[in-house]
Amino acid sequence: MVKTNKENLLEIALQGAITHTAVPASYTTTWDGQSQLGMGRGGIVYNVKIGDPCYGWELGENVEPGVSADGTDTDRAKGGFRNLSNVGNKVRILSGEAKGEWGIVIGKVGYLPGRNHHIVMHFKGDTLEKLTIGDKVQIRAKGAGYKFLDYPEVAIVSCSPKLLKNWGIDEKDGKLHVPVTKVVPVDYVGQGAGGSPPQSSNWDIQTQSPDAVEFCKDLKFGDIVLLEDTLSYYGRGYYHGAVTVGVVITGPSRHMGHGIGVTTLLSCKKGEIVSKLDPDLNLKNILELEV
Amino acid sequence: MIETNKDKLLKIAVMGEIVPSGSGGYRPTWDGTPKMSLGMGGIKYNLRVGDPCYGWASGDHVEPGVTIRGKEKPVASACALALFACIGNEAKLVSGEAKGEMGVFTGRHAGSDDLLWFSKETIEKLAIGDKVQIKAHGVGLKIKGFDDVRVNKCSPKLLESLGIKVEDDKLVVPVVARIPGFLMGSGIGSSQSVEPGDYDIMTTDPATNEKYNLHKLRLGDIVLLEDQLCVNGRGYYKGAATIGVIIHGWSDSAGHGPGVNPLLSTKDGRIKTVIDPRANTATYLGLRDDL
User: Fold this and answer.
1) Which residue of A91, A165, A205, B247 has the smallest Cβ count within 10 Å?
2) B232–A256: do the CB atoms touch at under 8 Å?
3) What is the pLDDT of residues B251-284, one digit of tens each?
4) Sorting pLDDT into bands at 50, 70 and 90, what band is B111?
């Protein structure tokens, strides 16, 4: 087991509410000049779940699997909800028919209309049926400040203790060997560059060029991907030899520069992370999620 | 010599106001160093198109000359100035001590800032709040026989001064540098239209800056962005080519750097480039004769 500062992490409550699905004000223009009214960006999506394919949803535009919530109250409170929540943290429903039931954070998404963000959550089927847009949720947040004690230059971003415990990261020859589903060349990495902090929003794998679409066609929600030559320390940007590891949390997009959304989990600059390819790896199994 | 439809273009008035210099206090650079930046917004007495992008003390995203914004809507990027003004258009001061004096529109920095060149004598008379009216001319511009090449934010005057030749049914465009597409960062995916913004060449990897001579870039330089398509939005497309002009300077924020307004873009291989170190809007628009 890789040594961490897990015992020193604060565990706090973050409150938000289930959002409406995000819709553009009108038709948008796709990369090839078509008019489109896309759907599936958050709210409650009943029939797309973590582990499902990213491709194949009619009119799907950055589809988010499951249920999304955003912070409420002041901008500072919203910032807390977005920046301090972690993949694998538990979420309790505070109001409505599912009051008292639990779900789990599976990803974080930004670049929504009105500069909104979504924390994407998984709930099992009978809970999902009871949820209502506007239901209050509270995340039991633990993970901010996480460090690998022997790898101070590896940034841990938005990871819960449960995720790190179950992920299967090994130490070998002074490197961290991290299981990933797929390795993504930097040419395909798009929106997200220039955004800060890495704890909010996401990177996108661009899905307009035919070669990129072919590369992405088998990706599933919850796949763990390594983005080459990208650094996610104090913001997101290009850095030769750096890597960012994240979880696939949205489907593809027909808007130029957009695509499959990736929530940042780990990043390093100098090759401390080595990928261990496992094409069947998915967050669904890592977090032992019940459908 | 290229032929265009310039006789069919509407020429209309759009308006902006000189805005104050911006300041956001200290923010972390890509490596976590606190930095208080300057050079965005306002009047820059000693920074002109043709000057270096890099090397200004505490400078970040430095904008040459004078920065104005449209005011008729709450968001500057939705104003007529942002959408219709083209590089090379005439600007006239319509209030203040320099009323009646002329300048030139030189580019648009994403989100907020429209940039103008004025002579040294005129700049001394300007005050924040002065109003400027621009004869917007260039929207809809096309090159005959090259309908697949999207022309953007480019006045007929600039297009005709770019030194474009036609060889083997391709446009041959002189550029200062060829920038690999994977270096394009902030601004990718941020809009489905190309008119109201720029996007950044990422300059936060020191080794890459050296490798591609990015320190040498100047404000106003014409560059090729490889594998980038800027027709309906901005992003990666294998084999595409975008010709752009650098409109703002260097950045130390992750994913940011010199900003580029796309001028010409195609995915169909109809743009070729030749290297010419003098390819700069300051020369092309007759703003300077010392470069």
Assistant:
1) A165
2) yes
3) 999 999 999 999 999 998 999 999 999 999 999 9
4) low
Whether B181 contacts chain A with CB within 8 A? yes
Spatial distance between the Cα atoms of B244 and B221, rounded to a whole number of angstroms? 8
Please name which of A122, A88, A89 lies closest in space to residue A103, comparing C-alpha atoms: A122
pTM for this model (two decimals):
0.95
- Asked if A196 has any chain B CB less than 8 Å from its own CB, the reply is yes
Q: Which of A104, A119, A142 is the last residue of a domain?
A: A142
Domains along chain B?
A: 9-137 (2.40.10.170), 150-284 (2.102.30.10)
Interchain pair A234, B187: CB under 8 A: no
Euclidean distance between CA atoms B8 and B6, whole angstroms: 5
Instruction: Find, in chain B, the residue whose alpha carbon is nearest to that of A29.
Output: B192
Q: Which of A103, A118, A142 is the last residue of a domain?
A: A142
A14: tokens are 């973050």
**Residue holding tokens 């670049």?**
A111
The shortest CB-CB distance from B233 to any of A187, A188, A255 is to A255
Number of domains in chain A: 2
Is A213 touching B (CB cutoff 8 A)? no
pLDDT digits (tens, 9 = 90+) for A35-47: 999 999 999 999 9
Whether residue A153 lies within 8 A of chain B, CB to CB, comes out as no
